[in-house]
Sequence to fold (998 residues):
Amino acid sequence: MKQKTYVSGYFNDDKDLIVAIKKLQEKEVVIADVRTPFPVHGLDTVLKLRRSRLPKAGFVAGSIGLIAGFGFQAWVFTEGWPLNFGGKPFMSIPSFIPVTFEVTVLFAALALVFGFLLGSGLGPGAPTEIFDEEVSNDRFQILLTANATKKESSQQLLKEVGALGVKIHEPKS
Amino acid sequence: MYVSPVREPLISGEKSYEKVTRDIYSPMAGQPGKLWYAGLTLAIIALMFGLFSIFVTVWDGIGTWGLNRTIGWGWGITNFVWWVGIGHAGTFISAILLLFRQKWRTSINRSAEAMTIFAVMCAGLFPLIHMGRLPLAFFIFPYPNTRDVWVNFNSPLLWDVFAISTYFLVSLLFWYMGLIPDIGTIRDRLVPGIKKKIYAFLSFGWTGSARHWARHESMSLILAGLAAPLVLSVHTIVSFDFATSVIPGWHTTIFPPYFVSGAIFSGFAMVLTLMIITRKALHLEDYITKNHVESMNKIIITTGSIVGIAYITELFMAWYSGVIYEKFAFWNRAFGPYWWAYWIMMTCNVITPQLFWFKKIRRSLTITFIISIFVNIGMWFERFVIIVTSLHRDFLPSSWSMYKPTWVEVGIYVGTFGLFFTMFFLFIRFFPVIAIAEVKSVLKSSAEKFVKKK
Amino acid sequence: MVIGAILAAIGIIFNLDHSHRIWANVLLNGFFFTAIALGAVFFVVVHVLGESGWHTAIQRIPEAMGQFIPFGGIILLIVALLGMHDIYHWSHTEHLDKILEGKKAYLNPIFFIVRTVVYLVVWTLLMWKLRQLSLASDRSDDLKLFSRSRIWAAIFIVIFAVTSSTSAWDWIMSIDAHWFSTLFGWYIFSGFFVSSVAIIIVLLFVLRRMGYMEQVNDEHLHDLGKYLFGFSIFWAYLWVSQYLLIWYSNIPEETVYFVKRQEDFSIIFFMNVVINFGAPLLMLMSRGSKRRLTWLLVTSVVVFIGHWIDLYVAIMPGVIGEPHFGVLEVGMTLLCLGFFLFIFFRSFAKAPVVPENHPYFKESFEYDNIR
Fold:
């Protein structure tokens, strides 16, 4: 979201937001971003957002954790440092279960969190442009690029669908 | 989402989104009150005393504790299990109630999760110091070393290391990920300055973009799905510390789910203790309502009853098994030298929560507060009874002994309260105590009167 | 049911000299289907106490399932009265060893029959009362009926909590009378509860085919799928808890239970875990899988068979010593299944398909699970 001119308009209600988005979509306007103070029900369907790949990443990571956790314990107990505990077999599968489970969950959770942060470009000190500080409070914002369609200006479009406080945001040089 | 009009509102009063932000932000704004300073000071004093006790332990040795050759685990491990148990409520509220679509969790999950993290920190202290040589604590982690030695993966004590570490990390991540949007809200409210820069840094660049929210929800749901079995596994593995032994009163198959229920039981009691005070002190009564308290009390009576049934099952099986050592272990609990601990446990854990069958009591904040304290006392005694009474008189009468804590052990326990409350006071000052965005998302459907901005 | 009767009859005739095998099968199926019916009542009760709304779309299915309790209970009573000596060693009161002598106060034929009757009567009364209140709410707008349902649900749950365990000890654990496990009651509960959920799904599929239950949407399926998934994992958790602890401490009087099963029943023993844990875990992990009725049906059938096997592993080693599986097992199961379905359809037809007067009914159609 750098070095571009954006036009923003906001709404006071999530239902108004969705109605406006649908109207814009009818006019085949490309919406740059929609920002809300909380996750709005049905918004991702309306925007036709691609289903997140995080679950798959989590599953893969968890599977790696499962194999790594179990495999490592098996190696330690058969090759690395076999210990005789209560006369049980070295390849003692039942007692490997707890650590295997924990490592599986750990790997999956780490993959999910880092996948989320990296995939969304978020992180400690990540730079972002907040166009309207009231969005995180109670405004539902639509962002369009400066020339969203050839026919009408973006400001015009936003006003037509009922947006309040339409503003232009020049990039900071 | 439609909510039946028969249901009671979860947020009382007239609220707009803006009001929600303001209400939750207000304890963080301006100067903290005298009570906050007083509380924090007391907590730090307790923490200092605890640190001193730990110093004595490490410098003079574990001999400064009251442990002896028969009773190798006393207050230290009792406190460990007690704190870990308390930590379970946070994850239960965040994860399991999310999976069950319980909207009422939105007012309490942030604080409960914070409570979990602080409780696990307190819990983790005990295994660390009871091993004695703190500088060598890293030995518990498996890493390639020149001694060609690995950790014992078949020991429940090592399973604990993995379980508690994973639990701490995952809880921290889950809590923080949920916090990010709210930190963004705080950041946007502040005037430019150092404070704003710090919160901007902590907000990780959050913008509220729909794409990010979608991923955030997906991640939260799966983290919840992971955290739910995780929370069960952690206290299960803690119970394995006892159940994998051969000692009567310790080795019994019901321990895993019984310990988990007990953990949720004491955890919710602690959440209630904290929330009943916090809501008053921070003027958040509209968000943490009697309905929330009632719902938490229902969980308390459920888990408390499960614990009670587990007690009865153990007693029955002790007789049914025909094993004289089992029979004696349970007779000794009720009528031996520690009978007083056993009966405190029974009264606090089995009898007091049964009062919550009555709706009036469920909805009374004062009685709930009192009962929540009793529950936590009772659950402390439960761990004490399990650990000490089973150890002090097991198979060989010539080894029978008694145990009494020393001031050092008591001091460390007091110190953990200091640590917990220091963190908690800092938390309520610098972070929003209620999940702002989550409350807003249920405001329309569950507020008493939702006010739309014109 | 007719096929089952014929097969069961053939099976019985071929095995008349192995009466304990016959009785073991009657016990297995009698318990399984009674427990499934009881689990269905528990399902409704838990949702009533939890003040949930989504379940109202399907609640008539578990309610009708619960009607089987008295009939299943009678089967169990017959087992207790007539089959006791074939199944339970402790019932041979003339030659008890020292351990069984010690348990005589609890494990004796008279007390056993009394307990069986008490379970049967109390469960039936509670199930009936809850059903009455639910049906009454269809005819009246009185919200007091719902508060009364909550009270009766609370009474049920307390009694269920105790009796589900004690009945499991009585009918199943006492087969291996020298053995004991404090977790056993909850372990059996987890098995039959997940089977109840599986049967709810199967019956939903059947009713859909017959043209009913059109109001059930993908969200309801998703929730049922979550239960099937989650409680299968819960069952596996309890299985591992019991097994790991007994394995780890290695105390002979406890391990003898698993040694017998691992050595003489080994394939079935391990299949039990694979089917009841591995299958639902992998089959229901993805979101989409929980929203397709046909896939849920397949998984539910697998789970149902799996928990029948679980009871087989629990009951048979103590009664007959070696695995036998043949016409008798299939026949008896089909017979009881047929009986169960007969009672179910009869009860289901007696009530409106949906409780439209329920205050939370509308909520059941206006919610969705996160993408």
Notes: Chain B touches chain C at residues 1-4, 6-7, 99-101, 214, 217-218, 221, 229, 232, 236, 240, 243-246, 251-257, 298, 305-306, 309-310, 312-314, 317, 320-323, 357 (CB under 8 Å). Chain B has a mean pLDDT of 92.
